[in-house]
Amino acid sequence: MIEHYLSKRMETVKKNIILIGFMGVGKGTTARAYAKKYGIYNIDTDDLIESKENRSIPRIFKKKGEAYFRRLEQETADWIECCVDGTLISCGGGFYQVDNLKKLGTVVLLDASYDWIYHRLSSAKNAKKKLAKRPLFSEPKKAKKLYEKREKAYRKVADLIVNVEGKSMDEILTEIHEGVEQLQKRKGVRS
Ligand SMILES: Nc1ncnc2c1ncn2[C@@H]1O[C@H](COP(=O)(O)OP(=O)(O)O)[C@@H](O)[C@H]1O
Ligand SMILES: O=C(O)C1=C[C@@H](OP(=O)(O)O)[C@@H](O)[C@H](O)C1
Fold first, then answer.
1. For 64, which of 21, 39, 68, 119 could close a Cys bridge (C-beta 3.0–4.6 Å)?
2. Which domains does the chain have, with CATH numbers?
């Protein structure tokens, strides 16, 4: 009986890595580098939503509103829960609010201060474009408020927290890889 329960439980633990964190902290960039280095597939929840809707994120916000976008995030989470495993998934900054996040895989928070994120984004060569594709970053003061509102919630849902400030991409990737491996062993995820 116990054995049966355990084996059922092990089957439902997913091998996905779910990268969460504030807008611009580097989730997409890190996911692509991780996938290349460790030879796995990666997908991005914003990309999935954009292709399903055949519209960019700013257009979705403008035409349909934020609440509609959040429903699309939940639909995406439901699809991941049903049908995706063994994948690195980078998420939009608000995706952590879906109601089944913890069922999707090991949740890794990329962490950095608001000022550091804002400074990197706004001093990039194509800063205007980078900020324009994030509707909730259009007003830095509001974005900072949003960061402060979410800061604790991100930490609460994370299985692993990786601070990215001042670290090389290689250091970040190693921290994620080693941390996730340890957690997955503990959770009984089969490799
Ligand atoms: N490790 C890194 N080193 C240098 N620049 C980075 C790194 N991670 C992200 N960036 C830069 O920061 C910007 C935002 O990163 P991105 O991956 O799009 O963030 P997110 O997916 O979290 O919104 C990118 O345009 C990229 O140029
Ligand atoms: O934080 C948020 O609520 C959002 C973050 C964005 O993704 P990135 O974190 O990739 O910028 C995107 O999903 C949308 O603009 C909303």
1. 68
2. 13-180 (3.40.50.300)
Angle between helices 114-122 and 140-157 (to 10 degrees): 130
- Per-residue model confidence (pLDDT) at position 191: 64
Rounded Cα–Cα distance for residues 15 and 105 (Å): 6
* Ligand-binding site membership of 26 (annotated): yes
User: Would you state the pLDDT for residue 3?
Assistant: 53
Closest atom of ligand 1 relative to the 25 alpha carbon: 22
Please determine, for the modelled complex, whether the ipTM score is greater than 0.95. Answer: yes
Nearest CA to ligand 1 atom 12: 26
Which pLDDT belongs to residue 171?
A: 98
What is the spatial distance between Cα 158 and Cα 173, in angstroms, rounded to a whole number? 17
- Per-residue pLDDT of 60-87, as tens digits, reads 999 999 999 999 999 999 999 999 999 9
Query: How many other β-carbons are positioned within 10 Å of the β-carbon of residue 48?
Result: 19
Ligand 2 center from residue 141 Cα (angstroms): 16
Helical axes 27-38 vs 169-187, angle rounded to 10°: 70
Helix (H, G, I), strand (E, B) or coil at 136: helix
- The pLDDT value recorded for residue 6 is 47
